[in-house]
Amino acid sequence: MNGTATIALAGNPNSGKTTLFNAITGARQRVGNYPGITVERKEGTINLDDVKINVVDLPGCYSLSAYSQEELVARKVLVDERPDIVVDIVDATRLERHLYLAVQFFELGIPVVLALNMMDEAGKQGVRIDSARLSSLLNCPVVETVARSGLGKQELMRKALDHAKQRGGIWEPLKISYGPDLDVALDHMVEKIEAARFMTNRYPARWVALKYLEADAEVLASGRTLGGPAQELEVIVQRTREHIQKTLNTVPEALIADYRYGLINSILRQNVLSHERTQEERIDVSAKLDSILTNRLLGPAIMFGVLYAMFQVTFTVGEIPMGWLESLFGWLGETATAIIPEGLVQSLVVSGIIDGVGGVMGFVPLIGIMFLMISFLEDSGYMARVAYMLDRILRIFGLHGCSAMPFIVSGGIMGGCAVPGVMATRTLRSPKEKLATLITAPFMPCGAKLPVFLLLIAAFFSENEAQIMFLITLFAWTMALLVSKLLRSTIIKGDPTPFIMELPPYRLPTLQGVLIHSWERVWQYIRKAGTVILAVSVLLWAAMTFPGLPEEAASKFAADRQAIAASAIDQEQQQALIVEIDNLEAQATLKHSVAGRIGSFFEPVSQWAGFDWRTNIALVGGFAAKEVIVSTFGTAYSLGEVDPEDSSSLSSRIAADPAWNKATALALIVFVLLYAPCFVTVVTMAKESSWRWALFSTCFNTALGFGLAVVAYQVGSLFLV
């Protein structure tokens, strides 16, 4: 700092900021106005440890948004003059409200020291603050002061100077999640802002995006002057604003404020703030609900009850519409068979497209019902409480409380997606905690794995559907925690970091909002089935159809049919034998195909887990996308079905196959749950970490999944068959 430093004093009006400024600087002050405006500017100087410190008293403000002249001035000083450190003076008796400004300083990236002022008044009111705990959670120095008496001012200045030296003028913006509705818009806007270097010479890119969402007049005006992506950003904001209004009946500014206060609330609840006289404590609706829903004993019990009820409702309500869809695709297959002449085109349409994609689409009702309930929990604010409660467990296994959200987003409560789950690991401060979370998040039962589990449960565990789905979820969490502990104890060692997470206030979700959020997810699933899954299904159909049987083998099957037709047995027996030969030929053709040869190549190893060559084909396709496993089974069992007229469901065909049993199904559930993430997830993991860790995850997860699948099959064969 070359012997000089600038410290800015900030805080809400009536926080004691000016009193503390006077106590620090004494008579060494100069007073004037900011250029061109009538807002008073106060500066003073002190000497500390041979460093000349210029202390600037910023106008009192409640936020860094340009809602008032004082707030705009404070922001311009911070951005244009770049003080070495900001000392934020907060009223210790109104800590929650006053920390709102501090959170915005953190988001801007400014080095901050927090001064807990009026600690004497706080003590009189029975308020107790653990300043050391608060400092750890905020990752900044916290000093207790009493401005009127000057108590703590020397310690405050010394810590401010030390922190300024430590940061060296580097701004480190804090990234806060504002929920699925705003985060998507923010990420899109940040990408455009960074690409165009739009205002990034003054502000962090995400901060600019936030100001656009908050309709900050000064930033909007500056953006229109600069041009660039300004118009595109305003279009994104308008679209987001309309979406928020429809789904949550609010505006982005209010939602942003809710999440900031949620963050503050979650920090204070971690043994930071306590009241000796609870009758004086204001308890709002969210606090009353949290006293039950996040209670140390009742909270987890309620959480498990809610999850179990979700699965029970899903299967009870979804069974009927699921049957309708199965019948619809069965009718489509029969109609296509009747209309299209026998041959490759008929096989492509019926086996490759209808049976392939239809096997995936048949589960839309179940997934839709599950998404409805998940959307309700997310919009109500309960999902964040689930993460909060899980922090106590996660810390035991070397993870961070914020790891809960990537797990939940990835499918920790059935139906998520590992891609945004992996991206959500960005909120973790520690690179090692991020790696452990990133590698294990794909273990969760995402929406792509759901059709596989639903198919196998319907085939072999139909009497206990909800219970099995619930156990699959618990097993996924157990494996994620155990593997995380293994990784954090071996190749990713490191100290844990404190837990900070936003707890948004409870709100009653609107019906329109829940329906829109659910439909967005269901439509994403349907669109994937109609694009990626369709393309892969067609490719796999080709791989399972060509090169076809050698002429010699085909001639042998034809000769067998002719021999039966010429025999003296009655017509009904002839027909049954011919159908059996047709089936054997279809199976032989499938096994002789490119896909069949690949599946057969792995069979000597995969048979230890109960997987035959046909299952291997599906699992290889699952590397592209897990839904492909179901579509591949649909194609494979269509190509090789026993009765060409059979229109029964895919689960019925699998259940009737002698190569399958409960032990095989159990092993496949374990393997699909744990083995390599889909290709898109792997690419995302590489972007968030490196290709080395992405490939490690692919190999490690597959080896782990196969090993446990072998155990499940071998043990299951003793008890389940």
Task: Please give a structural write-up.
This protein has a seven-stranded mixed β-sheet, with helices on both faces. It is α/β, with parallel strands linked by helices. Helix content is 64%, strand content 7%. The model is unreliable at 33-38, 278-283 and 640-647 (pLDDT under 50).
If you compute it from the alpha carbons, what radius of gyration comes out, rounded to the nearest whole angstrom?
Answer: 31 Å
Give the strand content: 5-15%
Average pLDDT works out at 84
Per DSSP E runs of 2 or more residues, the count of β-strands stands at: 9
* Tally of helical segments: 32
Structural class: alpha/beta
Helical percent range? Answer: 55-70%
Note the gap between the termini. Answer: 75 Å
Count of the separate structural domains: 3
Spatially, the strands of the biggest sheet line up as 2-3-4-1-5-6-8
From the spread of the alpha carbons, the general shape counts as elongated
Give a short account of the largest sheet. Answer: 7 strands, mixed
List the helices and strands and how they pair.
Blueprint: E1 4-11, H1 17-25, E2 29-33, E3 40-48, E4 51-57, H2 69-81, E5 85-91, H3 95-108, E6 112-117, H4 119-124, E7 127-129, H5 131-138, E8 142-144, H6 153-167, H7 179-196, H8 205-213, H9 217-226, H10 230-248, H11 252-268, E9 273-275, H12 285-293, H13 298-339, H14 344-361, H15 364-380, H16 382-394, H17 404-412, H18 418-423, H19 431-440, H20 450-460, H21 465-489, H22 511-530, H23 532-545, H24 551-566, H25 571-592, H26 594-606, H27 613-621, H28 627-639, H29 650-656, H30 662-674, H31 679-688, H32 691-719
Parallel strand pairs: 1-4, 1-5, 5-6, 6-8
Antiparallel strand pairs: 2-3, 3-4, 7-9
